[in-house]
Specification:
It contains 7 helices and 11 strands. By secondary structure, the chain is of the alpha/beta class. The chain has 2 domains: 87 residues, ATPase, nucleotide binding domain (Nucleotidyltransferase, domain 5, 2-Layer Sandwich); 148 residues, ATPase, nucleotide binding domain (Nucleotidyltransferase, domain 5), CATH 3.30.420.40. It has a 6-stranded mixed sheet. Strands 3-2-1-4-5 form a 5-stranded mixed sheet, with helices on both faces. The mean pLDDT is 90.
Length: 258
Amino acid sequence: MILAIDVGNTNIVVGAIDHNRKKVFIERLSTVKTKTEAEYAIDLKIILDLYHIDPAELKGGIISCVVPQITSVIRQAVEKIVKRKVLLVGPGVKNGLNIKMDNPASVGSDQIVDAVAVVEEYSLPAIVIDMGTASTMSVIDEKKTYIGGVIMPGVKVSLESLTANASQLHGISLDAPKKVIGTNTIDCMQSGVINGNAACLDGMIERIEDELGKKCTVVATGGLAKVIVPFCKKNVILDDDLLLKGLRIIYDKNQEKR
């Protein structure tokens, strides 16, 4: 069993994965740039205690991080828990992908991890949607090449911008709208946010497939995917564990390398 950590701009996903790539647990922490390594280590220890896991059971760890300011802090915190060096997804780490971008180093580590999992578990070509602070769409062709993608404002970012800049619109919850055509301000906003984002994904999938000239397997993950994907008209597979699977796959590839 290993500890797998994905550090995003808003949340840190913490999971344990066994040798069969099965999820033991998954939890989320808030990303706080001012926390020390000891504070993060305490957070991790509390999560392990909740699931009655002895840190001695952990054979290693792997981290994906898109927040450079806290990369070293998180790494040191995880190493305090697992009592050994942990793997950090980045340059020099074997992942099995050919990245065909103008600057391959610019691709977010979370996007790489998602793509690795999709290559291993789904048919290609594929589109990978990750809905977090930003909504990203990564495209992998049938030769396992990461050929590019799309980055859009995330669902909550869009909603917060709307409510912050329109004085008559107040904060709302992301509850499913009963119908597309709202009859009050709250319903109209919920429909706009949820149906609007679903329609955006449908439209982008169609445009990507048109550009490729091929149908794609579409897989979605991320904290907000389960809110939006049910309203998509396109066939989108929801995989909440995609990042954890990808981290385990990369971890295994690099153990073989060693």
